[in-house]
Amino acid sequence: MSEVLDLTRDLIARRSVTPEDAGCQALIAERLARAGFAVEHLRFGEVDNLWATHGSDGATLVFLGHTDVVPSGPADAWQSPPFEPTVRDGHLYGRGAADMKGAVAAMVLALEHFVASHPQHAGRVALLLTSDEEGPTNLDGVRRVAEAFRVRGERLDWCVVGEPSSKCRLGDLVRVGRRGSLSGTLTVRGVQGHVAYPEKANNPIHAFAPALAELAATRWDEGNAGFPPTSFQVSNLNAGTGATNVIPGELVAQVNFRYSTASTAAELRERTEAALDRHGLDWQVDWNLSGEPFLSPEGGRLREAVLDACRELCGVEPEQSTGGGTSDGRFVAPLGAEVIELGPVNATIHKVDECVAVADLERLPGLYQAICERLLVQGRGASPSPQSRPPAGPREREQGG
Asked: How does pLDDT run across 20-54, given as a tens digit for each residue?
């Protein structure tokens, strides 16, 4: 078996459901220390974070990943046990195979091979891992590490996130940015009463319905060259006491904006609250900003290095997308880093019988190593110019999303 397949199997066998790391980072730290990396363990609360670096002067290229996985669900629904990695029909099966222990293993191998081939490379290469990416809050993972890095002045220039970005074959899609995510818990208060005496009550469902129709129909922005228009969605709505003859006194709705750089979180909050006021509602919203939008600049050094490597090693012209959900890249981008997401095919992530093609897995270390060489050998580790370097984003509130 290949090195990357062996390491991926070893990682999958460790039952690292968020926030557990189950020894994945210790295994990786030991390997990278032997390869000459300086290793730092950053544990916050119940979360393990690993920071490993090689080199010193010049620009920093960091590979970012997570060792935690989502729960497997019923084990008997899987063709083979979810934490017993199994190769079948050219694919490696197991929880985390695609999201993202395969990419983590590939990053480790790429870094080991890169520093062995270029011991005096320019700049600095690094690996940042967390065990708190799949959880609901992300408080003590990369969000917390980024705050620590900001305080101590840690410089990050380029960041490759190993999230499974590809659609049908390795390298056919790269994420060049992500939309922001703004969530709200909206409470609309009414007056509880008997359904037979509506004049003595105030139904918050009825009161909210016209406002919801307006919010759902609003064109928040037109998007721009990098992003689609902003999307507003209601993900949950609850009201009622459980009795069929009671008008509820309160309605609670969970809402979310996935928004582009054409809008700001402040503007979206203000417009939402103005609509609620226009409809005369008695309301309250608790907002949670889990990440600002970010975009790798067109023509940026990292973006071009990733596209060139995909063309050469994968034989594809990558689609450049800002779609999908959020990733830990949203915490690194505000530090001033150019961020790209590149990883295996995402067709089975979070599903029963999650898997990764063995052929893709075995090509991934070479793809990541090629990015290192384009930036830190061919480019000699020159820092991005102030014009090409993305601006640091606003600081995010210490809340999950």
From this structure: 999 999 999 999 999 999 999 999 999 999 999 99
Euclidean distance between CA atoms 264 and 392, whole angstroms: 15
CA torsion through residues 333, 220, 233, 246, sign: positive
What is the per-residue pLDDT across 285-342, written as a single tens digit (0 to 9) for each?
Answer: 999 998 899 999 999 999 999 999 999 999 999 999 998 888 999 999 999 999 999 9
Indicate the SS3 state at residue 137.
Answer: coil
Q: What is the mean pLDDT of residues 75-84?
A: 97
Question: Is the CB of residue 68 less than 8 Å from the CB of residue 20?
Answer: yes
**Average pLDDT of the residues in 59-66:** 98
| Catalytic choice (133, 140, 163, 341) | 133
Residues forming a β-bridge with 130: 49, 66
pTM score over 0.85: yes
- Annotate 6-19 with DSSP letters as a single string: HHHHHHHTS--BTT
3-state class percentages of the chain: helix first, strand second, coil last, to nearest 5: 30, 25, 40
Mean pLDDT over residues 376-387, rounded? 64
For the chain, give the mean pLDDT: 93
> What was the pLDDT predicted at 380?
63
Active-site residue, from 68, 99, 134, 140: 68
Widest CA span in the chain? 81
**Is 286 annotated in the active site?**
no
Structure tokens at 107: 């990053």
User: Exposed/middle/buried for 218, CB within 10 Å: 0-12, 13-18, 19+?
Assistant: middle
Residue 341, SS3 per DSSP: strand
Q: What is the dihedral of CA 20, 26, 31, 37, to 10 degrees?
A: 100
- Whether 338 is a known active-site residue: answer no
Residue listed under structure tokens 């189950």: 22
Q: Which amino acid is at 205?
A: I
Shortest CA distance to 294 belongs to which of 317, 319, 255, 327?
327
SS3 271: helix
Query: Sheet containing 180-189: which strands, arranged edge to edge?
Result: 231-239, 250-259, 180-189, 282-291
As given in the structure block, the two tokens for residue 357 are 């093609």
Is residue 99 within 8 Å of 327, Cβ to Cβ?
no
CB atoms within 10 A of CB 321: 17
